[in-house]
Amino acid sequence: MGLIGDFMDADHEFLDKLWLEFLKEDVENDNASVLFKRFQKYISMHISLEDNFLFPRFDEHFGFENETGPTTVAHRDHGNIIKLMDMIKENFLNDDVENSKVNGRHLHEALEKHRRRELEIQYKLLDDFISSKEWREALMKFYGKETPRE
Ligand SMILES: [Fe+2]
Ligand SMILES: [Fe+2]
């Protein structure tokens, strides 16, 4: 792909790894909530970068009016991901180990599906119309630095 597609795809890989670490963890264990919070922090940054910068630029470039382009599905996916995370948070509060595992696996499936969609549609095209300067500025704004995982 290009600068942006490669970065975003690597970010998905990073997020998947964090989530799998969480799924392996025993939920009663304190470490589970540390891993959950870590995942939540990074996925919130990722979703915010997409919802507030990449997707609006995508819609603007291709002339999609509100809710008419492929980013509509991606936004809906984000809503589902956030909903599942809220449910897992609730499971934690209620010490509901079983349901947190079930919802955790659902979230993993939702992430995989979403990841494929973004890779096939949005990520492929972003580098064609967003300059590296604009991209670096967006990363500074949403991630606080240009290389968030280092
Ligand atoms: Fe996304
Ligand atoms: Fe994404």
Secondary-structure element order, N to C: HHHHHH
Return the CATH architecture.
Up-down Bundle
CATH topology: Four Helix Bundle (Hemerythrin (Met), subunit A)
Structural class designation: mainly alpha
The unique ligands bound to this protein are: fe (ii) ion
Number of domains: 1
Low-confidence stretches: none
DSSP summary, beta strand count: 0
Task: Explain what you see.
- The protein has six helices and no strands.
- The chain is an all-alpha fold.
- It has one domain (3-143): nmb1532 protein domain like (Four Helix Bundle (Hemerythrin (Met), subunit A), Up-down Bundle).
- The longest helix has 33 residues, at 30-62.
- The model has no long low-confidence stretch (mean pLDDT 91).
- The structure holds fe (ii) ion (2 copies).
- Residues 47, 50, 74, 78, 114, 118 line the site of one fe (ii) ion.
- The site of one fe (ii) ion has 6 residues, from helix 2, helix 3 and helix 4.
